[in-house]
Amino acid sequence: MTTPTTPAADLPAPTDLPGPTAPAPDPTAPNTRALRVLALCGFLLLAGCLVLTAVLGLVDAVEGDGVGGGLLTAGLWSLALGAAAGTAALAVPRRALVAAQYALAFAAPVLAALD
């Protein structure tokens, strides 16, 4: 006759179970220094886009009706928000903040050209 085994006898003891482990860092993720350098380069891009946006606004004022429209204002606000995102990316380096800085910088001249 066989002896019945209990299901609890087959389980490992609680001390044998592995504990929670921290997730491994992503080896392809940029480090904080690289993100800060990208944010600093983004300020140069913002300055260039500011000049381009101003030129597009002045060309529109001379050749157009002489009044800046809502899209030109939105483009200038885009530059201000891009500078705020770049400042935040310098303080707390996050990939999303740097991407937002670059996207807002590129959006400004596009919005000014659409005006």
Secondary structure blueprint with pairings:
Layout: H1 7-10, H2 32-63, H3 70-91, H4 95-114
Helix pairs in contact: 2-3, 2-4, 3-4
Largest sheet: none
Count of distinct strands? 0
Arithmetic mean pLDDT? 86
Question: What is the straight-line distance between the termini?
Answer: 91 Å
Regions with little confidence, pLDDT below 50 for 5+ residues:
none
Beta fraction of the residues? Answer: under 5%
Helix content: 55-70%
SS-based class: mainly alpha
- Sum up the overall morphology in one term: elongated
Plain-language structure description:
With 115 residues, this protein is an all-alpha fold. Helices cover 68% and strands 0% of the residues. The chain is built from four helices and no strands. It has helices spanning 7-10, 32-63, 70-91, 95-114.
List keywords for this structure.
115 residues, 0% strand, mainly alpha
Summarize the structure.
Helix 2 packs antiparallel against helix 3 (70-91).
